[in-house]
């Protein structure tokens, strides 16, 4: 080759240019005149140009004319690498047949086989394997062709490489094997091939990550299931002490958590900071996972290095459902971390009203101070959380503290004027709300906010219930509207008998027959009763219809809030009082998903009530509240009537518990259905068979209603 050819002026240069341009006629003519087949133009051989342009016929002419299949460019690039990079199978086959070096490396240290495997060129991989290319030749980072094929999920290539005895446990510079790469990338089919070939299932990389760990970390639950089924060790921890269960709980991967627990994952293993899976799930607000871990015997009181417990973290972040779940598991509500802060204190600091309410119910120590002497009411006042301040004051928090930690002082300093007014009222009459000017005669039980008493008010026998709502104005407005209702199936609200410091004592009509829940217990015991369950259902529907007609929602419709009456069969009570945004096992799916409660949510609860009336037990009795709420929210739980239930009754239940609230009937629709089918209900359901029961049923249910017009 002369200087003219190097600069593109000679015949050899013309040959290279013609090869790159695909001019078969000119290439043939030049070769026929004896031009060297290894001709170069500007440092690039004719064969290389033909391969890059995928002119296979010209490449064959050049090879047959004596072109060197390994002739490099001035940058040391060879034709085979160029063909493989571009996926030019015909050119690659020609070069392999011509004896090109199969293990030559490109500038990055990648072999043709690695490049083909990385690009997913299965045909070229097969050609190279058949040509006896080194299947275990790794690149500069230690990655083999099998590794990159596994990473990208090229199943056919993996099969060919395994058939050629590729090392399935060959690790790269970071200790990653093909199995780890496939698990991390979620390549289920490749994982199956590697496991079948005998890959080490419990191998860990240089960071201590196993295949199970990486599959969980990337959220590939199907691969986790695959590895668990192959008996992978689910308790291998990484260098930070994190196990697959820890990661699954931290990331909220419920299905992965269940798989790992079923495979024997330990709930007690912690990371280097002594954080447990339960701590991480509580921190993330993953209620279903918290429930699963508790069911697997996780220690609900196990703290981390800072002595924080799952309850403290959940309270700090305002995860009320998680707090409910932990409290149900008998967690220590008064445990303090190294800073001396309890769950109540951190919840008050964050202004998390529902969490504060829950903790007050379990009698958390309201005046417990941290290492700086700060109490829950101080930290709430400091941040202007007036609703929390009112709750704490009503529950008896001490407001007479030294200036350094005095809630009134800090509220003034920070300009929280509403909080200042609430605290001034409290200091004038600390706890006066708990000493109302009515005589409490008989203790009836305990509600969420305190004891419920039987008393006398304005000539009426009443039940006195304590309330301390987070929003006074809204509560009083709703209560005023509820007082205007005149329906025999609604317990009458006689008014507020006493208010102070954010606490209100409400006088509610005393209903003498006990709750429907107690009535159903009697039926379970086969005790004789004279009240028809259908009559109760009709009465409850009438009460609910009256509420909805007035534009009000019950908010807490359950069998415990329906009381039997000797004058009206049954009456609804506790309507419009409790915060319906707090979740319960009777909450509708949309409420559990975060929507505000509506009349449609009441209808959903009514459907559950109908099931309870017919089966004589609450739906899903074998499940924990948290599991019920999780299933309802996901739409996987559907309440079921008994096999002997009347079809009309079953259809009514199904209509009430529709997932879509827009598809549920109105209270008026429910009432009409119950009344129109009432005459058939007793013999079909077998709910009341003796003469007295039949007479009472007909008198209370089938006679024309004598209710007055609802006043709003």
Automatic annotation (TrEMBL):
Q: Which InterPro entries match?
A: Ankyrin_rpt, Ankyrin_rpt-contain_sf, Kinase-like_dom_sf, Prot_kinase_dom, Protein_kinase_ATP_BS, Ser-Thr/Tyr_kinase_cat_dom
A Pfam match: Ank_2
Instruction: Give UniProt keywords alphabetically.
Output: ANK repeat, ATP-binding, Kinase, Nucleotide-binding, Repeat, Serine/threonine-protein kinase, Transferase
Q: What is the top-level taxon of the source organism?
A: Eukaryota
Q: Which residues form the Protein kinase domain?
A: 438-685
Q: What molecular functions are annotated in GO for this chain?
A: ATP binding; protein serine/threonine kinase activity
Q: Where does ATP bind?
A: 465
ANK repeat coordinates: 75-107, 108-140, 141-173, 174-206, 207-239, 240-272, 273-305, 339-371, 372-404
Keyword Transferase on entry: yes
Protein name, per record? Serine/threonine protein kinase
| Species assigned in the record | Saprolegnia diclina (strain VS20)
């Amino acid at each position: 080759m002369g200087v003219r050819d190097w600069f593109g002026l000679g015949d050899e240069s013309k040959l290279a240019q013609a090869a790159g341009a695909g001019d078969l006629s000119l290439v043939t003519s030049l070769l026929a005149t004896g031009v060297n087949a290894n001709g170069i133009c500007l440092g690039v051989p004719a064969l290389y140009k033909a391969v890059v342009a995928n002119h296979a016929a010209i490449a064959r002419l050049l090879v047959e004319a004596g072109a060197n299949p390994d002739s490099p460019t001035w940058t040391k690039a060879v034709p085979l690498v160029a063909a493989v990079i571009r996926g030019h199978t015909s050119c690659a086959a020609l070069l392999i047949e011509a004896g090109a070096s199969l293990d030559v490396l490109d500038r990055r240290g990648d072999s043709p086989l690695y490049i083909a495997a990385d690009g997913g060129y299965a045909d070229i991989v097969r050609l190279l394997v058949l040509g006896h290319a080194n299947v275990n030749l790794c690149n500069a980072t230690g990655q083999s062709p099998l590794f990159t094929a596994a990473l990208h999920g090229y199943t056919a290539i993996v099969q060919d490489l395994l058939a050629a005895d590729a090392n399935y446990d060959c690790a790269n510079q970071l200790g990653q094997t093909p199995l780890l790469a496939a698990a991390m990338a979620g390549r289920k089919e490749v994982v199956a091939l590697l496991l079948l070939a005998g890959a080490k299932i419990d191998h860990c990389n240089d960071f201590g990550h196993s295949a199970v760990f990486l599959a969980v970390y990337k959220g590939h639950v199907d691969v986790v299931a695959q590895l668990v089924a192959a008996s992978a060790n689910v308790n291998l921890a990484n260098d930070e002490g994190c196990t697959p269960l820890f990661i699954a709980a931290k990331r909220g991967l419920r299905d992965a958590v269940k798989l790992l627990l079923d495979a024997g994952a330990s709930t007690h293993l912690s990371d280097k900071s002594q954080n447990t899976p339960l701590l991480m799930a509580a921190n993330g607000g993953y209620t279903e996972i918290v429930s699963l871990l508790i069911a697997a015997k996780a220690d609900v009181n196990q703290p981390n290095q800072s002595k924080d417990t799952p309850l403290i973290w959940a309270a700090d972040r305002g995860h009320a459902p998680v707090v409910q779940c932990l409290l149900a598991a008998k967690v220590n509500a008064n445990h303090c971390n190294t800073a001396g802060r309890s769950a109540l204190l951190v919840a008050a600091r964050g202004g998390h009203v529902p969490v504060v309410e829950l903790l007050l119910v379990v009698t958390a120590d309201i005046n417990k101070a941290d290492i700086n002497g700060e109490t829950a009411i101080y930290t709430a006042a400091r941040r202007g959380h007036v609703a929390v301040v009112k709750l704490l004051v009503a529950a008896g928090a001490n407001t007479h503290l030294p200036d350094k930690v005095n809630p009134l002082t800090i509220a003034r300093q920070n300009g929280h004027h509403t909080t200042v007014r609430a605290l001034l009222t409290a200091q004038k009459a600390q706890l006066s709300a708990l000493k109302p000017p009515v005589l409490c005669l008989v203790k009836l039980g305990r509600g969420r906010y305190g004891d419920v008493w039987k008393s006398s008010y304005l000539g009426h026998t009443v039940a006195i219930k304590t309330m301390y709502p987070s929003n006074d104005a809204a509560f009083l407005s709703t209560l005023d509207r509820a007082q205007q209702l005149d329906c025999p199936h609604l317990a009458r609200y006689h008014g507020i008998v006493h208010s102070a410091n954010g606490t209100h004592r409400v006088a509610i009509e005393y209903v003498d027959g006990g709750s429907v829940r107690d009535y159903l217990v009697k039926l379970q015991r086969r005790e004789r009763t004279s009240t028809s369950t259908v009559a109760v259902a009709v009465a409850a529907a009438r009460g609910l219809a009256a509420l909805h007609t007035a534009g009000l929602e019950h908010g807490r419709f359950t069998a415990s809030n329906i009381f039997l009456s000797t004058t009206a069969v049954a009456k609804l009570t506790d309507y419009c009082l409790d915060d319906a945004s707090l979740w319960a096992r009777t909450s509708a799916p949309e409420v559990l998903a975060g929507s505000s409660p509506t009349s449609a949510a009441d209808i959903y609860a009514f459907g559950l009530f109908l099931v309870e009336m017919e089966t004589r037990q609450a739906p899903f009795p074998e499940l924990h509240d948290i599991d019920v709420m999780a299933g309802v929210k996901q739409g996987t739980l559907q309440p079921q009537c008994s096999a002997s239930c009347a079809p009309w009754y079953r259809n009514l239940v199904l209509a009430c518990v529709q997932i879509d609230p827009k598809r549920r009937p109105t209270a008026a629709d429910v009432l009409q259905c119950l009344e129109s089918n009432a005459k058939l209900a007793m013999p079909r359901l077998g709910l009341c068979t003796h003469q007295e029961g039949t007479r009472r049923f007909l008198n209370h249910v089938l006679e024309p209603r004598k209710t007055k017009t609802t006043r709003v």
